[in-house]
């Protein structure tokens, strides 16, 4: 996909978004100064180790965050198809936000069981969501629409009469994906939607998501710790470390020629999905304590390429070649360096 960042293609713009957990131990800066644009119909992957801030970012974007998480700065500008000017999701009042949920922005979380209502049959849950956009839908029409949605993810229509616990884990996750598609949204936010299922089901679900995305054209923000998975599905990838984006670029570029030493370490921590297995090296050391971030680059204590400057000056995310990277020693073609 060619990505031209014109105003007409922009769907979501994160501008200086910062989120903190206000705890008794202090203020945990889980996301700091996040700047990222998601274009219409684009699949953007967000990757990083555990505790890098990926889920915090998604819950802030969708306003699903709970105390003690607080958005302490920045904007989430949503360019909806029905409004002439973008709305800032950070500032939006709850009734307006409710109008966007499911119909324009929907969410698929890690555990389907945490999102599906255990005491309602699937039919009732789909009907509730479908009625958000079209309150007049009659019983027969609802049944038809629900059957079509379930069919999209390979589930037979009879299952609409089941309760979530009567479905396998993979089916629950696929039902949730179908539910997220119910109102033909502009943006689907997915937080590790396949971690709870086995590898075969993971592949099946990903293929279904890709097929649906091509057919329906929605944009996706897909969070995972597995970079090799994003190579398969994403147009662009953003890498998070210590609550900041440290590299952004096309999926091919970020995966095959990562410029940030952390991105390279992350890539080499996971076996590739479809290519010959490399030696997995991982990243030495542990993720930073967000309550005691170093003055300079948060990754420098673990970085074998660090220079003196890295300890004192935090590198800004800066354009380099066809992407952006936050690293004092980054070069456009890192293969030349190593
Ligand atoms: N309720 C909370 N109170 C205080 N700190 C929190 C809370 N929830 C998360 N954090 C901190 O925020 C940081 C980011 O967490 P987050 O869950 O967003 O990371 P993540 O990249 O999604 O990790 P994972 O891949 O494990 O889900 C971590 O340091 C975490 O300890």
TrEMBL record:
SUPFAM superfamilies cross-referenced by the UniProt entry: P-loop containing nucleoside triphosphate hydrolases
Pfam families (alphabetical): ABC_tran (PF00005), oligo_HPY (PF08352)
GO MF annotations, alphabetized: ATP binding; ATP hydrolysis activity
Superkingdom: Bacteria
InterPro entries assigned: AAA+_ATPase, ABC_transporter-like_ATP-bd, Oligopep_ABC_C, P-loop_NTPase
Keywords (A to Z) from UniProt: ATP-binding, Nucleotide-binding, Transport
GO BP terms in the entry: peptide transport
Domain ABC transporter: start-end pairs: 14-267
Entry similarity comment: Belongs to the ABC transporter superfamily.
Protein name listed in UniProt: Peptide/nickel transport system ATP-binding protein
Source species: Microlunatus parietis
